[in-house]
Amino acid sequence: MASFVDRLKAAPVMLTDGGIETRLIYEFNRPLPDFASFLPLFDREGRRALAAIYRSYMEVAADHDLPMQIGTPTWRAHPEGLARQGFAAAGDLARVNGEAVTFLADMRRDLGLDGQVFIAGVIGPRRDGYDPHGAPDAAEAETYHTPQVRVLAGLGVDLLYAPTFASTEELLGVARACAATGLPYALAPVIEADGTDTGPSPYDLLLSALGSCTSMTLGMYARRKSWPLESVTVRLHQSRVHATDCAECETKEGMIHQIDLEIALDGPLSAEQRQKLLEIAGKCPVHRTLVSEIKIQSRLT
């Protein structure tokens, strides 16, 4: 039987699956907290949805007699991702990843596609897939991701696959963990449209608007009060956090967006003046827009 590498070299094209999580959410109306696509493996309707999705891809490979890489639904099946969904027992890492690999291996066998469909053991980022802030460095990432990588390799996957990583440091650590298994592996970092990953993202522009508005608002207020404010530096960080970690938030399930805003005020200001300026920072127009109810009307022109 030809190996993945042999088919990759010989075939004119290698097909892949795509949008497993997106299809579960929008096509099958499956709630998918934290994009944990392993969850449907553990209920009957969920397995039916996953089977329909994966079968639709494998049938394309069969119809066109082309090889295909198919990824396990394990993007969030690493230790912390599992724990967030209540899979925190000692054997859950092996159990959940094993269920995912067996699910695809059985389907491949039943469709007679051994040697044509290749199972990729999927590893996902420790935290956010689109925001590199807070991601582990290479050394920490290698240590963290190695247990899942070893489990997937031991289950007999054809290759290892690490998609949707915003942090190149974390992806480097994953690459080292994958290389240590001796299996072929593929990496898929998140990049910008121009391919450089150096320009501002839409969220960067949003944070820039909030930061500049905050700075200008504080400057104008201090000038009106004749306070000795010499300069303002605003640092911002956007992330997604679990709603359950936000006691004051109305949303209680899933993930919410959080913006951390740090303000450095230079000048001989009193403690009272500094505290008042912190209060005023929340009154800048962009800040007030972001925390208010927003209605967006879209139309075609």
Full CATH superfamily name of the largest domain: Homocysteine-binding-like domain
Provide the spatial order of strands within the biggest beta sheet: 1-2-3-4-5
Tell me what portion of residues adopts beta-strand conformation. Answer: 15-25%
Spatial separation of the terminal alpha carbons: 55 Å
| Helix-strand string | HEHHEHHEHEHEHEEHH
Helix content: 40-55%
| CATH architectural category of the largest domain | Alpha-Beta Barrel
Shape from CA axes?
Answer: elongated
Radius of gyration in whole Å, from Cα? Answer: 24 Å
Please summarize what this structure is.
By secondary structure, the protein is α/β, with parallel strands linked by helices. The protein is 44% helix and 16% strand.
What can you tell me about this protein's structure?
- This protein is elongated.
- Helix content is 44%, strand content 16%.
- Helix 5 crosses helix 6 and helix 6 (138-154) packs across helix 7 (168-179).
- The protein folds into two domains: 4-189, Homocysteine-binding-like domain (TIM Barrel), CATH 3.20.20.330; 202-291, GMP Synthetase, Chain A, domain 3.
- The longest helix is centred in the last third of the chain and has 24 residues, at 202-225.
- By secondary structure, it is an alpha/beta fold.
- It has helices at residues 4-10, 20-26, 44-64, 79-84, 92-110, 138-154, 168-179, 202-225, 271-281, 285-291, and strands at residues 15-16, 68-71, 117-122, 159-165, 185-189, 231-242, 255-266.
